[in-house]
From TrEMBL, chain A:
Protein function: Exerts its effect at some terminal stage of cytochrome c oxidase synthesis, probably by being involved in the insertion of the copper B into subunit I.
Cellular compartments annotated: Mitochondrion inner membrane
Name of protein: Cytochrome c oxidase assembly protein COX11, mitochondrial
Main subcellular location: mitochondrion
Lineage: Eukaryota, Metazoa, Chordata, Craniata, Vertebrata
The species this protein was found in: Todus mexicanus
Subunit structure: Interacts with CNNM4/ACDP4. Interacts with RANBP2.
Bilayer topology: Single-pass membrane protein
InterPro entries on file: CtaG/Cox11_dom_sf, Cyt_c_oxidase_assmbl_CtaG
Alphabetized Gene3D superfamilies for the sequence: Ctag/Cox11 (2.60.370.10)
Automatic annotation (TrEMBL), chain B:
Keywords associated with the record: Cytoplasm, Disulfide bond
Gene Ontology, cellular component aspect: mitochondrial intermembrane space
Organism: Todus mexicanus (Puerto Rican tody)
GO biological process: mitochondrial respiratory chain complex IV assembly
Gene encoding the protein: Cox19
Name by which UniProt lists this protein: COX19 protein
Length: 102, 88
């Protein structure tokens, strides 16, 4: 991935149960300091997503690394950035600390 | 996800995506496009730049199934053809 150039990545989610599940995901970036350079243009996160029983679905993320990443001396040794997602089951009345996004 | 209480260190603050959420491809209509893209990645040694055409084809197909999303999509096309992200 080249800083400044948009890139596409895929995750896959499966609902292994026999009931539909409504989930919300949030993400994490490692190393921590690289997170400020990670920009998502579009993804599946922060919105409730419904997966039917046994459903398996591709989850795309369209993103770019801020070109300033290449200028930051603290990032000079970083050649691997890991993006991970965690899916939470959306429960009534249970509010995740989501950023202001509706 | 880190759940350790690290007093004195900044916590990671997730940001929402610039253009919102993708419609999910629940019916697998775009799977062929995704496979084509993934094959390109494998063939190129996972070089993202080499596979931008196929990435765009996937995104076009995904958005074609969601007319409302097209409002945001034109910007994506412009971004991809310029090979530069929009400066915020």
């Amino acid at each position: 991935v080249v800083p400044g150039e948009t890139a596409l990545a895929f995750y896959k989610a499966k609902n292994p149960t026999d009931k539909p599940i409504i989930g919300i995901s949030t993400y994490n970036v490692i190393p921590f300091e690289a997170g400020q350079y990670f920009n998502k243009i579009q993804c599946f996160c922060f919105e409730e997503q419904r997966l039917n029983p046994q459903e398996e679905v591709d989850m795309p993320v369209f993103f770019y690394i801020d070109p300033e990443f290449a200028e930051d001396p603290k990032m000079a040794k970083v050649d691997l950035i890991t993006l991970s997602y965690t899916f939470f089951e959306a429960k009534e009345g249970h509010k995740l600390a989501l950023p202001g996004y509706q | 996800m880190s759940t350790a209480m690290n007093f004195g260190t900044k916590s990671f603050k997730p940001r929402p995506p610039d253009k919102g959420a993708f419609p999910l491809d629940h019916f697998g209509e775009c799977s062929a496009f995704k496979e084509s893209f993934m094959q390109c990645l494998r063939d190129s040694g996972y070089e993202s730049s080499a596979c931008r055409q196929r990435a765009m084809a996937y995104l076009e197909q995904l958005m074609a199934n969601e007319p409302l999303e097209k409002l945001g999509f034109k910007d994506l096309i412009d971004e991809k053809s310029e090979a530069k992200p929009e400066k915020l």
